[in-house]
Amino acid sequence: MEVASIAVSSPMFGTSRTKLSDCFFVPIRRRKTIIDRKFLFNSTNDFSNRSSIDLKIRAVHLDEVAADKPESLAGLVKDVNWPSPSDEIPFWKRKFHTHDANPEIPVNIEKDSDLLHVIHVTAEMAPIAKVGGLGDVVTGLARACLLRGHKVDIMLPFYECIQKDNIQELSLVSTYNSYYDGKWIQTNAYRGLVSDIPVILIEPMNQFFKGEDVYGGSYNELEAYLFFSRACLEWMQVTGTQPDVIHVHEWQTGALPLLYWDMYCYLSLQKPRIVLTIHNMEHYGECRQEQLNKCGLDGSLYATIDKAIDDRTIGHNPERLSLLKGAIVYSNSVVTVSPTYLKETLCSGWLASALLTNRDKYHGILNGIDAVMWNPASDVFLPANYHAHNTDGKEVCKQYLQRGLGLAYEGRVPLIVCISRLVAQKGLHLIKHAISHIEKHGGQMIVLGKAPDGRVQGEFEALANLHNKGSTIRILLMYSEELSHMLYAGADMVLVPSIYEPCGLAQMIGMRYGSVPIVRKTGGLADTVFDMDDQSQPEMANGFVFEGIDEGSLSQALDRAFSYYKEKPIEWAKIVQKVMQIDNSWNKTASKYIDVYNSIRVRG
């Protein structure tokens, strides 16, 4: 039987045949823990028979639990197949009912009367091609618009790493040619359903999008996305597809607005209008003129201040282009992912000038979370389901994590999780400080994530060597969608100490699962988390907020959260219930995107 590792390229964890028990000291517990409160739990749901989202989907209220009848928590504890670090297969790699989201949806969503056809063109989609929040946002927004009655498709590269068995009704629908660097490349287009959302997967018959991961293949990534941007428009043209809106995301699809307005709108594609969402202004899509030439445009025509020249390279030899800037200029509407981040990007950064010039079409719309995919009442990855009106199952999820990872699991100890890419934006020095501070003050912490930078990865491997053999800290240098669900459910608090954060999903997902957020006040974090000790708006209070980027500011927030948790257990339980009932779903915010779509669409 294969033995799995929990870390990537870590000298501590060794090869993929390293058992968890080889990495952790496992506390020995001789007394059985029995908890005698009531909970709701159902382990028998079968989600294998999936159905189309428009006609056959099963509807339930968001706050309904998937359970059929209440049982005592003691009964559940007895029946749970408790994991151990010595298990040959880690508990998050066990077989679940389905890889995908539970198809249960709320019934109280009104259908729109003025319907649209929207095609998203994106580099990521959860769960089949997810690296960061981009994939979650695309899936969540698409689902919310579908539920309102709109027609939605997602166009995505058919990465070699995509697991085909996670796509329902997959079929080849067309083969056509798309231009690249003086040649016409044979390209396949497939249709299927992912989470009941229609997808169109673009597969060029060359080296593009080959590799074990979404990003980082041996091909030129920028040129692959230039090809993909044109291939999507070419497919629409050859199939006669005329959506109302083409919604592009990030720099990877930044060339599409240029290609549309300077090429395809002069051919047969004349109805669509373009919306760009910028999820992170850090990535500009730096591009040489000769690279843009390869998708059939004349790169020299865009090397002006009012088009696509990268402002950082003005006066350099050579000057470069920015695909993201070009997309800002050429799109009919530009959206970023929170109102606060909009204000921040107008005041600082290399793209501030372009955004100010196009201020009249620039909008800040807060992201939502996919309330179907992220639902503790029906989440198939959890050992116990729960909901806002009965949170007892959350304690089972916490102990399940503690046992599976070899953490101590007796007594009332706060468990904090940090689920994040390990990059500078996320506040690496603050994450490191939190590890030592939480351990020193009697808490537990689990970090889940990996670093694209080898130096940063090495630093966290050293921290893992230092902490992972104890009984309070786990640093897991990997990413697992299944484990992330379990962490949000088992945690008491979720830490998001970002230096800047355009929106942030972790704090909203955490609240959905009853994990109280501890965040730095920036971007979308400032729009969604309000401090427990802020007397000016007590009705909004839902977490612990700090403003500085220094360790002391974080320490104070952690200390306040710990004090609340340990000294006010009844009040803490009320906070947990309160944050679980906050509606951060896409159902709440999708209407703002639909307003943007309608403001630019061509009628008739």
UniProtKB/TrEMBL annotation:
Q: Which domain of life is it from?
A: Eukaryota
Protein name as catalogued: Uncharacterized protein
